[in-house]
Structures are given as structure tokens and as C-alpha cells.
Design a protein that fits this description.
hydrolase, disordered C terminus, binds beta-D-glucopyranose, 32% helix, Glycoside hydrolase family 65 protein, transferase, 9-stranded antiparallel sheet
Length: 795
């Protein structure tokens, strides 16, 4: 069977599992990404516990902590005022996953001897990765090995490894060598590779940690390290439990950058020998007094509780997660697996501590430096808003936390208000290429758009008043300062010299996406200011005084929004991407040889910028985000114009095309783009899954299912649905949280039903008709594809 990109299927379709059926050097690197275990705080790539002796370019060993970064200088041979000077990159931390196994005098090594059977499974219900294999050593000793790894979703600082060995044909000695390896070299990538492909890493080289302390005490060990430049501390503790009978000895050692616990067992044929290794990380970015003590306490508590307790916690957590987040598709196993892997990966990637966000590659790789982009607000947040609003809020609070840095950046660039960085971990702009970095001012409005969606869906006024409003005002202030009234444009408010979402077009005037979004930002600021002033005058007075906000300024926002220049081409009847876009040479991308893609790696930017070429949707994304403003005819006209000139060189692209294609009746395209985003990493669509997942595309998967095939829209506070399933799907069922309610939606070939599971009665709109939902009762609407029958039944 073939995958969505026509290659041989990599992982057998399975609803709740991702399975590797044979061990292979050629696929090892990619599988390290796919089998990452993470919990939003830490991420462990799927490297083998016992070690890997294959060639260096077939593996990338890493444990990450979200938001734990080292600083680096950004070097510009020719400098310029206001260019970002210092970068922040998520770095690999001390590796506590290692448990080598000596079988008498032979090390377990899958690249030697003979693998008699092998499987590795990611269980998305259990939240574990398990490897089961039978291996015969070069000396003929056969062992059954089973290794389970879990990164706890309920205890953010904790992971465990459960290592189990059965000698099949011998009596002898087994020695588990458990390590914390603090000798971590950051980026073994050739710097030139990183310069060529920014999607691979951040270019931090060498060793960034100094070891401050190592201790080994019987079965426990720990290490404290400090980064050279950012000055962060990290504590890593491990504790072990052996369940191999009494006949074992323990030897521990702490030296240099290494902590080692050796457990030796006299083993008999047919008996099972188990080692549990508990691992904890804390860093000085966490809110605890003593990171050392916290890590030690964490592993001691885990050892006391044992594996079973933690597995149950994990299962319960995931049961609740799937109960909120799952999308059940009947009739398409490939889609089902892709959707679940996407949602599971989003869960694994999202910071939940108000300090961390979602890195472009989650916690699976260090491409894009582990930094946060607009990917979070525009592509991933909707999933959390409608399934786990608390996580959405925490992600937005992470932005609030960096508001001071955004104010400082605006000031540095000579502007009022706040300018959020295009890419960052902890606040400062880290983008070294300003035309596709700082110039993407739209990030400001993207954040505000996300706040607006969050507030609309949750009615969390306290968040709006105490945090959201300040961001909304400071960004409105920025837009008002950035733009100007241009006489020859009818004295309209223009925003010049910006880059929109499409990174194949840069530094242009009046990018439509930016102008529409800035207008929304300004209008929302006016609306929110009026609302708070009326509802909470004291709070408003305090905020206004904090940021020096006067009524005249709000009038200026109103005026700028009213007069915003919104480009439209009368000749073509479409929205031009910007003032100059339609005057560039058109190019037939079908004539560009396959091996030239992605263009960013093969063409000079000037040659890209000179053409009507899009890396990703820009006008079309605008139409998706503001669907209420555009008719299907308008969407179709723009879709037909922009689709043929879009290369989809960005993984953010297909989801948007899928949703809009469904909207305008391009059904087979809707599915083609959907499956591309849903299985982007499982089918290794872009051939770079090894460097990490495409987290934004995974958020796009949820969008394309729920906003696309489910046709969900949130108009002026009213939930609306206009579904249409791919022809071969029997049904799609999903749940949404909305204003304190939980709603179950089931779309079938000819009807759609809604069940209000939690909360007060709710009025929704389905296919233009109002429907009233009450708790517990299912309401069904019959429709026929392409239209709908007026027939509503309550059961
Ligand atoms: C895309 C950006 C995105 C970044 C990180 C780039 O390739 O063009 O829109 O924010 O990747 O995912």
C-alpha cells in the first residue's frame, strides 16, 4: 500500500498505535523523531537506551527541556541598526536515558549479532513507547528484551524507563549500566548545514554546560550543571529499583560529567530481570527553591509509587484528554492515525506552565532553535481553545510574560507600543534574517487574533481584563505608529515595508493580510477599551495609567482602523497580496524541476522575491481567518489565482488550502491537502521528519478536520456548522468546548447530530438553520451532499 505521497507505507495503519516493525539504520534517525516521548516540559527523542553504534549521520541523540536555552551571538559580517544581536536556542541537556546492558562480556547492540524479532510501539492511549525484541549476541546468547519509556503527563518533571530482560538460552551475568551523561556536545551539525537549512538547527556548537556537582549514592545519582552564557542551572536525578531477586550488586560512581550506577545480576535461563529507572529534571527557570532537592524528591517519590501508579496516572490523564480532543473517523484508517498522531504530538509539545510555548518542532528536534513563532497562535491554539482551554490560556500567558521585551523591541525600532518577536524563546527577537523575521509585524495581530478567539470561545473576561487588554492596547498603539495616511492612496492608512505570512515575498507595501489583521487589532482595542471602561472603570483607570493611555489615542486607533487601506484589484477581481505582487512576473511552478524544491534551499531570495510565487497562503489565510467577511465566490476567485503559484514549501500551507477547498466545493483537493497535513510526518512527506515534527501542520490537521470537513465557524459568538465529509468517510465525530459547554458533533454521510454533554442550553446554527440544544438530548439534521433537507429531529 502507498502513503499519501505515493511512497511505500512506513507505519502500518493502526488507530491508536504507531508501530516500527523492523530495526533499520536507514530509518533510525526518522524514528527517533516519531518515537519521541514528551510532556510539554521535557522531550526525549526516541534514541535507544542501550546505545547506538551506527554511523553518526544516522542518529541524533537528544533530551530537551522546553524553553531551556543557551544564548548565542548572531554574527553579521555587515551589521545594521536594530538587527537582532543575540539568539536563544533550545539545547540538548544531560542525557539520563542510557541503560547499557552487558550480557556476560558482550554488550547489547542491535547493530551486532542477530535481531530475531523486533517491534517498537507508540501507544497513544497509554502514553508510552515500548520496544520488544529478541536478540542473539555474536557469542550466541539469546535475550528477550522489553523496554518501556514514559514521560509523565501528570508529573512534568518525571520520566521512567522500565527495562526487562529474559536470558533465553543461558545462565550468566547481566549488568545494567545506567548513566547520566553530562558530556553533551551541542549540535553536531556542520555549521554550514545549518546556514543552508535553518530548519535543521540553531547553530550552537560544542559544549554549553559546566558540571557543578555530581553525586552517586547507592541506587541514586544526580548531577547539577550550568550553561555557559544564559547562566541557567539544571539538575538531573535518577533513582533505580531492581526486581531481580536478591542476587545482585550495585556499584556507583560520579566522575567528571558522568554519573554511573552499575547493577549486576546473576541470571538464570528463563527468568525475568527488571530494572526501573526514574528520571527527573528541574531547572532554574522553574519556580522551586532548590532544583537539586526537587529532582531528588521527585525520583524518590516515583520510586515509592512505582511504575504501575504512574502508568495508571498516565492512562487516566490520556483518557480525559482523548475524551475532549479525539476526532473519530470511520472509513479512513490512514486519516484516523494521522489525526491522532497530530493531536497526541500537540499535547506532547505544548508548554503548560505559563512560561513556555510550543516550539516549531515541538520537543522532538532543535530545528528553528526550539523557538516559538506565530505557528502557536494561528495554527495550534485553536485546537487547545476548543478542547483544552486552560492550556490555550497558559500559552497566551506566556506571551503576556514577554510583553516588556516586546515593548523594549518596539522602542528600539523607534516605535510606540509593543512589537512581539518573530521568533524567540524568552522574549527578545532571535531572527537573524529581518526580511522574513522582524518585518513579519503581523505576529502582533496574530497574537491579538488568538486572544480574541480565546475570549470569544471561553468568555474568560478576567483573562481579557488582566492580561489580554494590555497586549491588545500596546499592539494597537504599535500599528497606529507604524502606518501612515498616504495622500496618493486616497489618504488611506497604509502600512508599508512589511512581510506578510508568505515568506517568498518580502518587504512590501500594504500586505493585505497585515492590513486586515491590523485593522482587526485596532478595532478590537477600541471595543475592549470601551468595554472595560464601562464594566470595570477602576481597572481601566489603573491600566490606562500604567501604560499612559489617553482617550485621544483610542480615537486615533478608531480612525486608523476606519481608514485602513484594504487592497483590491478591480482588473482581476481578487485581493492582491500587496501593492506590488500583481506586477511581478508570473511563473509556472509545474515547470520548475522537482529537485529545486524547497526553493529557499536552491534559489537566491532575490530571484524568489522577483516572481509571483508563494511559499504558503497569505491572502488565502486571511480569507480563512476572516471567513465571515468573504463570500464563497470571492474565496473561489482568490483560491484559483493563488493556488497555482503556491509551492507549499512551508508545512503550514496544506491545511489552509484543504479548508478553503472544502468551502468552495473542490472536494478532492480538500482531501488531498488534508491527508498531506495529517500524515506529513508519518509519511515523511518533506523528507525531513528526522529533524523533528511539523507542529504547526499538526495544528492544521485539527483545523482542517473541524473547521474544514466539520465546517465549524464561530461567527459573532454563534457556533455554526456546515459539514461535508470526504466521499469515502462514513462519519467523523468530534467534541468542542464552547463557553462552558461540551458539545458532541457527529457528521455522517447524510446527517449531522449534536449532543450537548455539559453546560447550559445552547443555540447553534447548522446549515443556515438555528438549532437549540439542551443537555443530554441529541438533535439531528438531515442533509444531502451539495445541499440539505429541511428536517430536524430531536431524540
Ligand atoms: C514558515 C513560517 C513558520 C516557520 C516555523 C517557516 O518555514 O514560512 O511561517 O513560522 O517556518 O514553522
Amino acid at each position: 500500500m502507498n502513503t499519501s505521497n505515493g511512497r511505500k507505507i512506513i507505519y502500518p495503519f493502526d488507530e491508536w498505535q504507531i508501530k516500527e516493525t523492523e530495526f533499520n539504520i536507514g530509518t533510525n534517525y526518522r524514528n527517533e523523531t516519531i518515537f519521541t516521548t514528551a510532556n510539554g516540559y521535557m522531550g526525549m527523542r526516541g534514541n535507544l537506551e542501550e546505545g547506538y553504534s551506527g554511523p553518526e549521520n544516522t542518529t541524533f541523540n537528544a533530551v530537551y527541556i522546553n524553553g531551556f536555552y543557551e544564548e548565542y551571538d548572531i554574527d553579521y559580517p555587515e551589521g545594521g541598526y536594530g538587527l537582532a544581536q543575540k539568539g536563544q536556542a533550545m539545547v540538548k541537556v544531560a542525557d539520563a536515558r542510557m541503560v547499557k546492558l552487558m550480557i556476560d562480556d558482550e554488550p547489547l547492540d542491535l547493530l551486532k549479532g542477530k535481531i530475531r524479532s523486533y517491534e517498537r510501539i507508540l501507544h497513544m492511549k497509554k502514553g508510552t513507547v515500548e520496544r520488544n525484541f529478541t536478540w542473539e549476541s555474536p557469542g550466541g546468547r539469546i535475550v528477550d528484551v522489553s523496554i518501556k519509556r514514559m514521560v509523565s503527563l501528570t508529573r512534568p518533571h518525571l520520566a521512567f524507563i522500565f527495562f526487562s530482560v529474559v536470558p533465553v538460552n543461558f545462565d550468566g551475568q547481566l549488568k545494567f549500566i545506567s548513566l547520566i551523561n553530562g558530556d553533551i556536545q551541542n549540535s553536531r551539525y556542520d555549521k554550514k548545514d545549518v546556514e543552508k537549512d535553518v530548519r535543521v538547527g540553531a547553530g550552537i556548537e560544542g559544549k554549553v554546560f559546566r558540571t557543578i556537582k555530581t553525586v552517586a549514592d547507592n541506587t541514586m545519582g544526580f548531577m547539577v550543571q550550568e550553561t555557559n552564557r544564559s547562566g541557567f542551572k539544571l539538575a538531573c536525578a535518577v533513582e533505580h529499583k531492581i526486581s531481580c531477586g536478591l542476587d545482585h550488586s550495585v556499584l556507583t560512581e560520579a566522575k567528571g560529567d558522568m554519573v554511573r550506577v552499575d547493577i549486576t545480576v546473576k541470571a538464570s535461563k528463563g527468568k525475568c530481570y527488571n530494572l526501573s529507572k526514574y528520571i527527573s529534571y528541574y531547572t532554574s527557570r522553574d519556580d522551586v527553591e532548590n532544583i537539586e532537592e526537587s529532582a531528588i524528591n521527585e525520583v524518590s517519590r516515583a520510586k515509592q509509587d512505582g511504575i504501575k501508579v504512574m502508568e495508571d496516572e498516565q492512562k487516566n490523564f490520556l483518557e480525559a484528554f482523548w475524551d475532549d480532543a479525539d476526532i473519530v473517523v470511520e472509513g479512513d484508517a490512514a486519516a484516523e492515525q494521522g489525526i491522532r498522531y497530530s493531536l497526541f504530538s500537540l499535547l506532547q509539545s505544548a508548554g503548560r506552565d505559563k512560561k513556555t510555548g510550543i516550539a516549531a518542532k515541538g520537543l522532538t528536534g532543535e530545528g528553528y532553535g526550539g523557538q516559538y513563532f506565530w505557528d502557536t497562535e494561528i495554527y495550534m491554539l485553536p485546537f487547545f481553545i476548543y478542547t483544552r482551554p486552560e492550556t490555550a490560556k497558559n500559552l497566551l500567558l506566556q506571551r503576556y510574560r514577554t510583553l516588556d521585551a516586546a515593548r523594549a523591541r518596539a522602542l528600539e525600532l523607534g516605535h510606540k507600543g509593543a512589537l512581539f518577536p518573530w521568533r524567540t524563546i524568552d522574549g527578545p527577537e532571535c531572527s537573524a534574517y529581518f526580511p522574513a523575521g522582524t518585518a513579519q509585524y503581523h505576529i502582533n495581530a496574530d497574537i491579538v487574533y488568538a486572544i480574541k478567539q480565546y475570549v470569544k470561545a471561553t468568555q474568560d473576561q478576567e483573562f481579557l481584563y488582566n492580561f489580554g487588554a494590555e497586549i491588545i492596547f500596546e499592539t494597537a498603539r504599535f500599528w497606529q505608529d507604524l502606518g501612515s495616511y498616504i495622500l496618493l492612496k486616497g489618504n488611506k492608512f497604509c502600512i508599508n515595508c512589511v512581510t506578510g505570512p508568505d515568506e517568498y515575498t518580502a518587504l512590501v507595501d500594504n500586505n493585505a493580510y497585515t492590513n486586515y489583521m491590523a485593522k482587526m487589532n485596532l478595532e478590537y482595542a477600541v471595543e475592549v477599551a470601551k468595554k472595560i471602561k464601562m464594566e470595570r472603570p477602576q481597572l481601566y483607570a489603573a491600566l490606562a495609567s500604567k501604560i499612559g493611555l489617553k482617550d485621544e489615542e483610542i480615537c486615533r486607533w478608531e480612525k486608523a482602523a476606519r481608514n485602513m487601506y484594504l487592497p483590491f484589484s478591480e482588473e482581476l477581481g481578487i485581493i492582491p497580496q500587496d501593492d506590488s505582487f500583481l506586477y511581478k512576473k508570473k511563473i509556472d511552478i509545474d515547470l520548475i524541476p522537482e529537485d529545486q524544491f524547497p526553493l529557499l534551499l536552491h534559489w537566491h531570495y532575490l530571484n524568489i522575491y522577483r516572481h509571483q510565487l508563494c511559499k504558503q497562503p497569505d491572502v488565502l489565510l486571511l480569507m480563512l481567518l476572516m471567513r465571515e467577511k468573504f463570500t464563497p465566490e470571492e474565496i473561489k476567485k482568490n483560491y484559483d489565482y493563488y493556488e497555482p503559484i503556491t509551492t507549499h514549501d512551508s508545512s503550514l500551507s496544506p491545511a489552509v488550502f484543504s479548508i478553503l477547498a472544502k468551502e468552495i466545493g473542490y472536494d478532492s483537493k480538500a482531501y488531498k491537502y488534508f491527508i498531506q497535513t495529517a500524515r506529513m510526518d508519518l509519511d515523511d512527506y518533506n523528507g525531513n521528519t528526522k529533524d523533528g515534527i511539523h507542529a504547526a501542520g499538526m495544528g492544521g490537521t485539527w483545523l482542517a478536520a473541524v473547521f474544514g470537513f466539520g465546517g465549524m465557524k464561530v461567527g459573532d459568538g454563534e457556533l455554526c456548522f456546515s459539514p461535508k465529509l470526504p466521499v469515502h468517510w462514513d462519519s467523523m465525530t468530534f467534541k468542542v468546548r464552547y463557553r462552558g459547554r461540551k458539545l458532541l458533533v457527529k457528521v455522517q454521510k447524510s446527517d449531522i447530530s449534536f449532543t450537548l454533554m455539559e453546560g447550559d442550553p445552547l443555540k447553534i446554527r447548522c446549515l443556515e438553520e438555528e438549532m437549540f440544544l439542551e443537555k443530554g438530548a441529541m438533535v439531528k439534521k438531515v442533509y444531502i451532499s451539495g445541499g440539505h433537507k429541511k428536517c430536524t429531529t430531536a431524540e
